[in-house]
Amino acid sequence: MTRVLIMLFTLLIAGVAQAQIVDTWTFASPQQQETSLSIARQLRCPQCQNQNLFESNAPVAVSMRHQVFTMVAEGKREEEITRWMTQRYGDFVLYSPPLKPQTWILWGLPVLLIVLMGIILWRVIARQRAEGESQ
Questions:
Q1: Range 102-111, long-range pairs (CB < 8 A, 24+ positions)
Q2: Residues 51-94: pLDDT tens digits?
Q3: Is the pLDDT at 4 greater than 90, yes or no?
Q4: According to the 3-state scheme, what is the secondary structure of 91-121?
Q5: Are residues 93 and 115 in the same domain?
Q6: I need a labelling partner for 67 at 20 to 30 A (CA). Which of 3, 10, 103, 133 fits?
Q7: Whole-angstrom Cα distance, residue 64 to residue 40?
Q8: CB neighbours of 107 closer than 8 A, spacing ≥ 6?
Q9: In whole angstroms, what is the distance from residue 31 CA to residue 73 CA?
């Protein structure tokens, strides 16, 4: 009997852990709703793995989403909201970080890796040709 109660209690706790945050927000107009949701889709949750604010249920994402909704309701433009979010949370919240000295490695590393792979591939092919000609 005790084991059954422990199992039921464990299942209950697991179900509560899976509960999602329900976001209820009233917008003044459909345009405000569309603008708010569009901005929330363009900003990344700082806690989640590559989820935007619209998709994420993390507490920080809910807070950020509510901040976006509030700022849109106050009449702020998308650029102002994005600037405020990047000042507070850093460039990580942007899916396309700006090109500046702090982000050069983000933009340059893929190009550098492709060039490096090309050089390695070229050397391997050249070595195979040289070995094939010497035999």
A1: none
A2: 888 888 889 989 999 999 999 999 999 999 999 999 998 888 88
A3: no
A4: HHHECCCCCCHHHHHHHHHHHHHHHHHHHHH
A5: no
A6: 103
A7: 8
A8: 99
A9: 11
Distance, in Å, from the CA atom of 77 to the CA atom of 15, rounded to the nearest integer, reads 40
Tell me the three state secondary structure of residue 60: helix
Torsion of CA 86, 94, 26, 31, to 10 degrees: 110
Structure tokens at 107: 């933009």
Residues 14 and 70 in one domain: yes
CB 20 within 8 A of CB 9: no
Find tokens 């890796």 and name the residue. 113
- Which token pair is 115? 């060039």
Residues 66 and 107 in one domain: no
Q: How confident is the model over 29-56, as a mean pLDDT?
A: 88
